[in-house]
Description:
- The chain is of the alpha/beta class.
- The protein folds into two domains: about 5-220, Alpha-Beta Complex (Spore Coat Polysaccharide Biosynthesis Protein SpsA, Chain A); about 220-320, no CATH class.
- The chain is about 55% helix and about 15% strand.
- Strand 6 and strand 7 form a beta hairpin.
Amino acid sequence: xxxxxxxxxxxxxxxxxxxxxxxxxxxxxxxxxxxxxxxxxxxxxxxxxxxxxxxxxxxxxxxxxxxxxxxxxxxxxxxxxxxxxxxxxxxxxxxxxxxxxxxxxxxxxxxxxxxxxxxxxxxxxxxxxxxxxxxxxxxxxxxxxxxxxxxxxxxxxxxxxxxxxxxxxxxxxxxxxxxxxxxxxxxxxxxxxxxxxxxxxxxxxxxxxxxxxxxxxxxxxxxxxxxxxxxxxxxxxxxxxxxxxxxxxxxxxxxxxxxxxxxxxxxxxxxxxxxxxxxxxxxxxxxxxxxxxxxxxxxxxxxxxxxxxxxxxxxxxxxxxxxxxxxxxxxxxxxxxxxxxxxxxxxxxxxxxxxxxxxxxxxxxxxxxxxxxxxxxxxxxxxx
Length: 384
């Protein structure tokens, strides 16, 4: 049984796969297996894998028809036998001491995860370095990491090696419903639930940045869908005993991710809808607690804070309007009732007058009074 297993999802990366596999075969640590999972490749990728497998019995070839990196990695997790598990993308390459570093640090400690630094490189253009957070080396627990947990490493699973028994103990797999950022949910779920995490301040993984398309670099048009992963991550965090210490960090991390999604999203309306809906889940907690918002995340928070305050103010004003309308409605009902009563009273009087005028006594009295009234009118005429 190998000490370490490396899982490689393979989808149309024939131009880079040989370099990836050579960097793995060049490792100073030799006790490992390579699980290559074909995920519907249509180029020469699997020809490259099979050619390497002919000369290296450590390479295991598997198939996964369900499209996406999540399903391919899950297939690999079902097959691996190593004590430790790590992931490499088919178009990337690694330093030759990476596996030795993973094995040594995990064997020396009881850490469930070992984390290294990574660089993102655009071939022949530029390289961006992403080391582990300064000051964080050696083993750390989630409580020790506090609200830094989400900023000490990138979300990628490719910068981490995991104890396989810890993955199985937690029943952890990649969520195949997520279209993007599926590794973010996997990585940070493990970090929150790990007994401890070991940090190595070395850049040992090299991530090839494309303008478009690998399994993990899907089109930017789906950027806003990363909010689905953030929602699930928040749900996991809320079940953690350390949530009180993780709360501010996760909020700041969510704002940082939102800023990135905003920058790459091609659909502004979709982004705003997704962002506001996600932040609504934070609003009750934000209102109840004093939260330190990091300067680099303040713009995104203030955008939502102001919008939410405006909505609440509008709601308060609207409630005043509704209350006023209700008062007028009640007053109108009262006046209508009063008018109806007065109309009824008038109709009753008119009816009684009509009945009186039709009565015999009224007619007799009118006839009797007709003679004096006539004499009175004539006397007034003589005097005049």
